[in-house]
Amino acid sequence: MQTSNPLPLTERKWFYPLIYFLLVIVAFLPLYTEIPYDPRQTSQVFNEVLQRSIEPYAAWGWVFHLLPIAALASTVWRPAMGGRALALTFGLNYLVIAATQTHAVTPNYGFTLLTGVVVACGLLAGLWLWISWKGELSLAWSRIPAWRWFLMPLAVLAFWSPMRLQGELVLPDFDPLLLLTSANYSFAYCFVTPVFLFLLILAYPAVNRFALRVTAFNGLLYGLFNLNWWSNPTARWLGVLHLPLLLLSLAALLLSHRRLPSIPK
User: Fold this and answer.
1) How far apart are CA 235 and CA 44, in angstroms?
2) pLDDT string in tens for the chain (265-residue length)
3) CA–CA separation, 203 vs 225, rounded Å?
4) How many CB atoms lie within 10 A of CB 30?
5) Is the dihedral of CA 33, 36, 41, 44 positive or negative?
6) Distances (CA, A) of 48 to 43, 52, 102, 108, 158
7) Are the C-beta atoms of 249 and 194 separated by less than 8 Å?
8) Phi/psi zone of residue 167: left (φ > 0), alpha (ψ -120 to 50 degrees), beta?
9) Which of 11, 109, 135, 225 is most exposed by smallest CB count within 10 Å?
10) DSSP 8-state class, residue 61
11) Whole-model pTM?
């Protein structure tokens, strides 16, 4: 009697709904604050952390601008090697974000830790470092469908993250130098992720499908959370700057659920 081979875990119908549910649970983990906060103040707690967390590291913003550019350049000659370098770069970037953007001493809540962001960035870092080691990302420029390039302005906007603070007011700042120096990109999950997702969209299907879906779904969650910037008249520009996260996460997630033939390695 012949028995059919069992489906791989990631091909079973219940697998991705379970993974997505767990990511939602992680996103809603309670924040740690030295001074207790009312859950209705969660957005305010986030804002106080994000306004202060990356300031000490601003001078190093150029590092994670140049590293992905160098990795991307290497894909022109060696798509597979460049793919490993890209996955390594973004895995390391997620580790740095977990260590920098996620905590600060705030005026109203004391030391505060964005627990869910720490866990999510730690998981993404481990996932993409593993993908780099396995070599499951390759970017071959000749195989990219033309329509995917129409998403490029969203990635450029996130990479540039052209903004400056004037008191509590968030204003556009289109200084070209920010394309290489902006710490708002280098140390911020919501700006790093859409750039990475755009590159994964270009590479698809020569990318680990599980890693792409996890990254895209988690990005979609935070893209939806950040719609609240539109209700703040002093920070609506942040709402604009978070559109790449929302739109590229949705595009990557939808693309990853299409049945496309794998590119041979």
Assistant:
1) 13
2) 445 567 788 788 899 999 999 999 999 999 999 999 999 899 899 989 998 999 999 999 999 999 999 999 999 999 999 999 999 999 999 999 999 999 999 999 999 999 999 999 999 999 999 999 999 999 999 889 999 999 999 999 999 999 998 877 999 999 999 999 999 999 999 999 999 999 999 999 999 999 999 999 999 999 999 999 999 899 999 999 999 999 999 999 999 998 655 444 4
3) 27
4) 10
5) negative
6) 9, 7, 11, 8, 21
7) yes
8) left
9) 11
10) T
11) 0.93
Q: Distances in Å between the alpha carbon of 131 and those of 3, 109, 124, 178, 208?
A: 32, 38, 10, 30, 7
Distance between CA 208 and CA 256 in Å, rounded? 10
The residue behind tokens 């080691």 is 133
Find out whether the peptide bond into 264 is cis, omega within 30 degrees of 0: no
What's CA 205's distance to the chain center, in Å?
A: 19
Two tokens at 109?
């809540």
Exposure string for 99-114, b = 16+ CB within 10 A, e = fewer: ebbbbbebeebeebeb
261 touches 205 (CB < 8 A):
yes
Annotate 198-248 with three-state secondary structure.
HHHHHHCCCECHHHHHHHHHHHHHHHHHHHHHHHCCCCHHHHHHCHHHHHH
